[in-house]
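Dear colleague,

Thank you for sharing your sequence with our group. We've completed the structure prediction you requested, and as agreed, I am returning the results in plain text so they can be pasted directly into your records. Please verify that the sequence below matches your submission; if there's any discrepancy, let me know and we will rerun it promptly.
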Amino acid sequence: MKKILTIAGSDSSGGAGIQADLRTFAKHDLYGFCALTVIVTMETDTWSHGVFPIELPVIDAQIKTALEGVDVDAIKLGMLPTPAIIENVDGYLKTWAKKVPVVVDPVMVCKGNKPLFPEHAEAIRTHLIKHATVTTPNLFEAAQLAGMEEITNYEEAKEAARRILALGCQAVAITNVGRVMAPKTSGDLFYDGHEFVLMEGAFIDTHHTHGLGCTFAAHVAANLCKGFSPRESVFEAKEAIKKGIKNHWALNQFVGTLDFPDSFK
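Please find the predicted structure tokens below.
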């Protein structure tokens, strides 16, 4: 059985973060390791987020458990809540990104467009993107990484993808690009330096998308772990997400999540 490590945050509501990653890896018949970087909680009356970073020595010990204690076949990054943690992970990737595929999900927001940690963009740009086999920013994160104020149309999304690829990654998949197109679609943009591919899909009108970004990146990482190319990994992940959104369901009055078939083996 192939093994994959996720270095990411814990979502107390279960739909995103480490919980989404491990659930996705299991559906791909992969053995998942995890290193928790932060615990995210929700206020029960407003569903606003509480963010509680984990101490660096604890994170370091978790990473060593997987990488030095066992070995892995792929690595997926999620929420890394401080520049110090980002720099520490960079130290591992300098070695491991030469051995195994790496997916960087540059988490800067939980929901909306206000960054959890404003200094993240520069640290991620400097220390993480260069190691990525694929990076999977949403529109807001892509603009931050590309040094753009905002992405408001398809041409700006393409320019952001060019700038992000220039940071050293092998491929970029910008999610939710269809939101700034007319008519609105569920299109995502893939770019590997050779061609731009808009992965189209009919827009499904639901706000039950909690964990969508984490889960998409986890599917990409799982596919890479199984030997798929970056393009194949992203396209297969897109198809999986379509199925998950179609089977969405409500967690409570504030948020809903995705549901998937039994297996992607």
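Summary note from our side: Residues 90 and 150 are 27 Å apart (CA to CA).

Kind regards,
the structure core
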